[in-house]
Write a structure and sequence with these properties.
- This protein is α/β, with parallel strands linked by helices.
- The protein has 9 helices and 6 strands; from the N terminus they run ααααβαββααβαββα.
- Strands 1-3-2 form a 3-stranded parallel β-sheet, sandwiched between helices. A 3-stranded parallel β-sheet has the order 4-5-6, covered by helices on one side.
- Strand 4 (159-162), helix 8 and strand 5 form a beta-alpha-beta unit.
- The two termini are 34 Å apart.
């Protein structure tokens, strides 16, 4: 899907209309949706108040941090490993991730911001809001590949992990990436080969290392 990104004020106004239309059906005739409710919900879902991290997220980043401290000889040709976010979402994502305690590099598709020199958990963020295209369209994966700026000789390994069969798994495969379905609750059964499924994010790094050996 392709679309034109809305200015921030228009985006907030659009969300406000959705809130009004949703809650107005629950109110008596002629009753108005309190403006304070609209403001409160917009704030809640633009910050960490409306979200929580899955239990495997912080252990994954700790695992990655520990692995990065090992010597380049041990890490082999994965020493340029990057972690990025590809999301069908608006501009709230970087703020929410930051408030949830994840350290962002500062690199965002379409932004001229200079990347941070400090250690980060997430190297770059690519959002459909900025690209104008949503997963599973290959264009957003192409944008992410450009953001990674792999400088090593030869082809890099591009592995996308997500919990949607169509948007994440099939979208990645069609874009020429490796796709891994994150199936925490065993919802998909036989839809995807077992070799392309994981139950926790801490399985990602071993899977990536295995892909380089094969």
């Amino acid at each position: 899907m392709a679309f034109q990104a809305l200015p921030i004020k228009m985006l907030r106004r659009a969300f406000g209309k959705v809130i009004h239309s949703t809650f107005s059906t629950l109110l008596p005739d002629a009753a108005q949706v309190p403006e304070g409710l609209v403001t409160s919900l917009l704030h809640r879902f633009s910050s960490d108040e409306g979200y929580r991290l899955y239990d495997d997220v912080l252990p994954f980043f700790q695992q990655l941090h520990d692995w990065r401290k090992t010597s380049p000889a041990t890490r082999s040709d994965l020493y340029q490993l990057q972690v990025g976010i590809i999301s069908n979402s608006d501009d709230r994502i970087p703020t929410i991730l930051d408030e949830l305690g994840l350290r962002l590099n500062g690199r965002r598709y379409g932004s001229d911001l200079v990347q941070s020199t400090t250690h980060s958990d997430i190297d770059w963020v690519v959002m459909s809001y900025d690209v104008g295209i949503e997963k599973p369209n290959h264009g957003i994966f192409d944008a992410a590949k450009n953001m990674s700026a792999i400088s090593a000789e030869g082809e890099g390994v591009y592995l996308h992990v997500g919990d949607s069969i169509e948007e994440d798994y099939h979208g990645a495969l069609k874009a020429g990436w490796q796709g891994v379905l994150l199936d925490r609750d065993s919802r998909f059964k036989d839809d995807i080969p077992k070799t392309a499924r994981i139950k926790t994010l801490t399985d990602v790094l071993p899977r990536l290392m295995d892909s380089k050996k094969s």
